[in-house]
Amino acid sequence: MTTSRFAESASALPHAVSVMTAEQIKASGASSVNEAIMKLLGVPGRLDTSGGGNYTLDLRGFGGTADRNQVVIVDGRRLREDDLSATNLSIVPIETVDRIEVMRGTGTVQYGEGATGGVIVVTTKAGKGVDRRHAATVGASVGSFATREAHASAVLASGGFSVDVSGKDVRSNGHRDNFASTSNNLASTVQWSNDWLRLGAQSGRHMVQSGWPGSLTAAQYASDPTHASSLGDFGVAKSENTGVFAEADMGDWLFGADANQRSKQVRSENWGASAANVIASNVNVRARHEVRGKSVANALVLGLDNGKWANTVIDSTYKTIGSFSESTSTAIYVTDDLSYVPSGTRVSAGLRQEVVKKLESSSGMGLDEHPVAWQIGVSQALGQSVTAYGHMATSYRLATADEYTYVNTGVILQTQTSRDVELGARWVQALNKVELRWFRSDLTNEIGFDNGASPKRNVNFDPTRRQGLELEAKHKVVDALDVRATVAVRDAKFTAGAYAGNDIALVPRQTVALGANWRPMSGHAVDVGVNWVSSQSPTFDNQCSMPAYSTVDARYAYTAGKLELAIGVKNLGDVKYYTLAYGCAGGVTTSIYPEAGRAVTASVQMRF
């Protein structure tokens, strides 16, 4: 478990954490990180309108601002931009992933602003940096909508040195007109390690190009959900990243540091041509001191984070600078975990102080904030297999560059703050686990786009609340059969103001995800998943409703030595549904973005 930014056991943590290993991901047949999180953990996902097969995940009911209220970390690198573009988890080839950790609830002390909903930490095999040995994987797949994919990865290891390289290319015509896309990714990591020190460097390049089919009215959706309202809109995004990292184990002290820089170029044809260039950098330094006695253990973590982000917007000539936005942040944080071994009691506390500065040229608006977050948690062992826990925290989010420029004249968006509480209990025995948790977050000055206002603008909403119950279970029935279940009941509402009592838009009240992995005989595996999502409202006035939907996915895989052949079907029942809509007209939902119908994929993969 590394959501604390250092490895530790997950069983005694005083907050909700879900872990997916490479073996579990492979058995599920998930083809992307997004799909693994939605399929194995039941996290609701919404189709990303910019294409490339990406989804917006929603850990705790934030609807249209879910991306802005959770942090995504890949091998120590924070992916999210300081604008409204989607977090692009599709750049991570699933074949290279060692583990995915999802911390529901605030992670602000460890990871900074925008983590009220939670944190997703993806660690690749290169990022883990252990068990280095020669290996290679090549694979290809073809499927519905003329989808073609090819991927390859390799590890070369000698002594303490290792080199990891991976590449992936995906092309598809898409399930709608003008939704064809091409994406490719290339990444490499070079590292050296001995018994106490690890040093390395990584780099990567990613490109996605996709048509933008636009939204449909209710009549258009009913007539032909594959139709496009726009046949000429498209976008192209190219990004590059480079970085270095270091880890040192010096007895009671563990040290870690990483620095990375990334650039991104975006061009779009959508209501006119535009382009933008993003340059961002991060430097993170941390240290952990652990002391263990016969009855007491204590772990102290100290950290320093520094980040810079700048975006230059180019006008329709692609030559003249239209505006620029920039932000800088510097934070220090400290956490301490005290465990009393005989009773199995653990007390955790943490504090973060951050200095954030933002500026946008076209509006002349700027922000200079000094937010603070704290957390305290307690876990108590109730026997060898059961742990109960409680967690209280505060969190915060600042408006992005896009948000604080599209406001009513003279309005400056205030910092969003939240008070968060969570209670839970987990039972863990070997490969079996059951965890039940209750959570509540009370938000002040929540930042969002009010599509019911006139004019429509980004605002600080009146007070809002998220609360609910989550049940997560996995069980090995027999050696050849594993089952899993995730059930969530959420209540995301306005607690005051003009929308008091109304549901937050794009948040389903209930979700259920069930799955089973069956291995009837050696080399054969079948994985089946059922996903049900309740109805939700597309707007804050709750005058319209998006229908509930249920989908079934299935996959069969045959493995013979190093070769794997598989065939999978998504949306087996060819259900007609959508996960995203923005409008309501006369009580009828509109601005609809349809999901795909039945999709069949055949794949082959060889491991060396």
How is this structure best described in words?
With 608 residues, this protein is mainly beta. The protein has helices at residues 22-28, 33-41, 108-111, 125-128, 218-223, and strands at residues 17-21, 45-47, 55-57, 70-74, 77-78, 97-104, 118-124, 135-143, 147-158, 161-172, 181-193, 197-211, 234-250, 253-269, 273-292, 296-314, 321-340, 345-360, 366-369, 372-381, 386-397, 416-429, 432-444, 447-450, 457-460, 464-478, 481-494, 510-518, 524-533, 549-560, 563-570, 578-585, 588-594, 599-607. The chain has a 22-stranded antiparallel barrel. Strands 1-6-7-4-5 form a 5-stranded mixed β-sheet. The protein has a two-stranded antiparallel sheet with strand order 2-3. Strand 17 and strand 18 form a beta hairpin. It is globular. The mean pLDDT is 91.
The main pleated sheet reads as: 22 strands, antiparallel, barrel
Count of helix runs: 5
Q: Considering DSSP H and I runs of 4 or more, what fraction of the residues is helical?
A: under 10%
Mean pLDDT: 91
**Mass-distribution shape:** globular
The end-to-end distance, rounded to whole angstroms, is 28 Å
User: What amount of the residues lies in strands?
Assistant: over 45%
The secondary structure category is: mainly beta
Tell how many strands the DSSP assignment holds: 34
Low-confidence stretches: none
Radius of gyration: 24 Å
